[in-house]
Amino acid sequence: MPPDAPKPRLLVVDDEPDMLDFLERVFRRDYDVDRASCADDALQRLAEADYELLITDQKMPRVSGVELLEAIGDRFPRMVRVLISGYAEMPEVQRAAERCRIHNYILKPVDSRKLVEAIAQAYKVRDGAPLPPVGD
After folding, report:
1. Model confidence over 54-72: pLDDT tens digits?
2. Which contiguous run of DSSP H or E holds residue 19?
3. What is the pTM assigned to this prediction?
4. Do 81 and 107 touch, CB atoms closer than 8 A?
5. C-alpha to C-alpha distance for 21 and 91, rounded to whole angstroms
6. Domain 9-126 listed as CATH 3.30.1540.10
């Protein structure tokens, strides 16, 4: 990316402020990071701006990450979608992959190196590569 080019936009969604802080620290050098603490806030932000990448936690009050991704549907076909979860919830992950066009999922706890690698893989999945198995 040329030095004067605008950074791509990233929306991170999590109800835990510490996780939002972590995600912002990991990606702020390469992305213009916006934060949402719930699905309603995320949907509002998506209506107001174009995002290259969405990273959402699965377990949130009221609306889960999968439910957020289902609400988004096919509205943003080029947006990379990544789900973070503390559990290998295979039915939820499978549903997200089939119905929500998820491009990768990350199991907690996650470190910054694994997170960056998972995002790189998510771009490949968006562009046609198979979704990696849980735990990779």
Report:
1. 999 999 999 999 899 989 9
2. helix 17-27
3. 0.90
4. no
5. 29
6. no
End-to-end CA distance of the chain: 28
How crowded is residue 81: how many other Cβ atoms within 10 Å of its Cβ? Answer: 25
Query: What are the domain boundaries of the chain?
Result: 9-126
Query: Which of 132, 114, 3, 70 has its CA nearest to residue 54?
Result: 70
- What is the tens place of the pLDDT at every residue in 77-86? 899 999 998 8
Could you report the per-residue pLDDT of 5-30, keeping only the tens digit for each?
A: 899 999 999 999 999 999 999 999 99
Running DSSP on this structure, what letter comes out for residue 134? T
CA dihedral 114, 50, 31, 107 (to 10 degrees): -10
